[in-house]
Specification:
By secondary structure, the chain is α+β, with helices and mostly antiparallel strands. Helices cover 34% and strands 25% of the residues. Helix 1 packs parallel to helix 5 (121-138). The chain is globular and about 60 Å long.
């Protein structure tokens, strides 16, 4: 059985002033994948992570079908299957009036174990980073843990590398500087590389609260309604949480991830203590007529209560440059949350993060770009990224808007629970986000929803 509790040996720290083909800042799934893909492409890579493994990451913990092709390609899928995890075969959507519909994932994908998993990010990220470390070191690169990037260097608008230190603030060691033809920002919603690119070099806004989500997560044991190690994950659009949603995701037998997500601009419209996602969740668990029964014998895992933010990939009305925001430039590409690619409906970010991570290795050529990754290639990356993900993210943004209309959601979920064609359509939408566009077809609405 794979373990995620032991330290990961990353080898010697490269000397100050070392030069690489690629520097990756951030060792989560997107950064680990970007480091691995570029190393597999023949690059000498430096992978930097500010924490020391094992470390937790706050998330809903679902790893969808889009992610699994990359996870398999990188040699991590077999590692995941050797650890405790939950096999997702369906998604339950619940509305404010108590209606619910179970959307089955494609049976053939489930049978091939490619439909989706749910497992703590403590485990998943550990395995992704461990595998990336092996691949990077095998290809003459280096990996550093516990290193905070304090400065991102540029020369005439081209990012050239980073500087940082080991240790906690006030206890830092000496500053070390590294340079590369390409620096990849993979440091999450506060990524220093992305901030340097977007705000400092281009004077564009890094965040927009209409496109950022606040999230709060806890782990609970023995929640009612779940048995075994496979089954549904649940997303509920209930009265007390709308315009956000409440989720329950099993991550292994007997353990579930429970949380609330809400767009930050909507959260700020709430009054008084109602703004607190933690307090909203406490009310649902203790007072909601359905969920208080399911949690009556459950036990909170102490220390698991944590909040975080997610930068959505929803399209901006008047973007200053590229959609959803600038994610590349001379000497730099950003991936995952650092590129604002989280799905605005489901809140899932790993799949889009891995798509962008692999795409960096498509656009960077260590021989061709030995003097620095060019602006022209950066533009091609951004255009390709939106071409690949834009329709899906746009449709998810539309769905995010719909769920705020309580009466519409009540009616829609109730109709879907009674009509097989709508259930089949929802299955297709989960399996293939491109199928979401059917929801906006007048003929589809007439045929599938309005007809008895």
């Amino acid at each position: 059985m794979e373990s995620w509790s032991e330290p990961i040996e990353t080898g010697e720290v490269p000397p100050d002033g070392s030069i690489f083909d690629v520097i990756v800042v951030g060792g989560g799934p997107s950064g680990s994948a970007a480091a691995a893909y570029n190393a597999m492409n023949g690059c000498k890579v430096l992978l930097i992570e500010k924490e020391v493994w094992p470390r937790d990451k706050v998330c809903g913990d679902a790893v969808g079908g889009k992610s699994l092709s990359h996870v398999k390609e990188l040699g991590v899928k077999e590692m995941v299957e050797k650890t405790p995890h939950f096999m997702v075969d369906s998604i339950v959507f619940g509305s404010a009036n108590g209606n619910s519909v179970k959307v089955m994932l494609p049976q053939d994908e489930f049978e091939k174990k490619m439909a989706g998993y749910s497992l703590p990010r403590l485990q998943f990220d550990y395995m992704m980073f461990k595998k990336a470390t092996e691949i990077v070191l095998e290809n003459r690169g280096a990996v550093i843990q516990g290193f905070s990037v304090n400065d991102v260097h540029d020369d005439k608008q081209r990012i050239t590398g980073v500087s940082g230190r080991f240790g906690k603030r006030g206890e830092e060691g000496p500053t070390l500087t590294y340079s590369a033809s390409l620096t990849i920002g993979a440091g999450g919603y506060r990524c220093p590389v992305s901030t340097k690119l977007v705000e400092d070099l281009h004077g564009e806004p890094m965040r927009d609260d209409d496109h950022y989500c606040g999230g709060y997560r806890e782990y609970w044991e023995n929640v009612g309604g779940f048995e075994g190690s496979q089954g549904p994950i649940e997303i509920h659009f209930i009265e007390e949480v709308i315009p956000g949603y409440f989720w329950i995701f099993p991550v292994q037998e007997g353990l579930v991830n429970v949380g609330i997500g809400m767009v930050i601009s909507e959260q700020r419209k709430q009054k008084g203590a109602d703004k607190s996602l933690k307090k909203k969740q406490r009310w649902v668990i203790e007072n909601h007529p359905v969920f208080k029964e399911r949690f009556k014998d459950a036990k909170l895992v102490k220390g698991s209560e944590r909040g975080w933010q997610l930068p959505f990939g929803s399209p901006r009305k008047s973007p200053p440059s590229y959609q959803p925001r600038r994610s590349a430039g001379a000497g730099v590409m950003c991936v995952g949350d650092a590129a604002s690619l989280v799905d605005p409906f489901s809140g899932e970010g790993i799949g889009n993060g891995l798509v962008s991570a692999k795409m960096t290795s498509k656009y960077f050529d260590k021989e061709l770009h030995s003097e620095g990754f060019p602006e022209e290639a950066a533009q091609e990356y951004m255009e390709d990224l939106w071409k690949t993900l834009g329709k899906e993210l746009t449709n998810s943004y539309r769905l995010q808007k719909v769920v705020k209309w309580k009466k519409v959601m009540n009616w829609f979920v109730g109709k879907a629970s009674r009509k097989k064609e709508m259930g089949d359509m929802l299955t297709g939408m989960i399996a293939d986000k491109e199928a979401q566009k059917a929801l906006w077809s007048p003929w589809f609405l007439f045929k599938t929803i309005l007809l008895p």
